[in-house]
Structure formats: structure tokens, C-alpha cells
Specification:
about 80 residues; mainly alpha; about 0% strand; membrane; transmembrane; transmembrane helix
Length: about 80
Amino acid sequence: MSDQEKKVDTARAARLFDVRRVIGGLFTVYGVIVTIVGLFDSKAEIDKAAGVRINLWIGLGMLALGLLFLLWQWLRPADEHR
């Protein structure tokens, strides 16, 4: 294996295991789940949260944060930082 092939393999592994991708993916998935739960909150759950649809708002916030992490990872890949 040549040095160039090793560099390509290392860069590919760095992109695959980039912490921004992992965090962004998890926040995006959990954000979608919590947002869906928030859309179907019962009146009792909303009243328990002082009249705020907390699951909906937190889900949307998690979704936005996850997408920001994925956007950051896409705009500034790991191999650019070297």
C-alpha cells in the first residue's frame, strides 16, 4: 500500500468517525422522535408543563442543533483541519 493510499484511508476513517457526525446524527434522530411525540401530546401533558408544548419545542431545538452539527461537518470536513 502506497503512502497516498494510506492517507486516503486515514482521511476516510477520520470523516467516518468525526464526532460532529455522531453528535449531529444522534441529535437529529432524537429531535425527530421528540418532535413527533410533542405533536401528539395530550392536554394533561401540556398542563403538566405549565401550558407549554415542551416536547415539541425541545424536539425542534434538538433537530436544529443536530442539523447544525451535520452542516458544520459538511462545510468543514476533518481532512481540511490538517
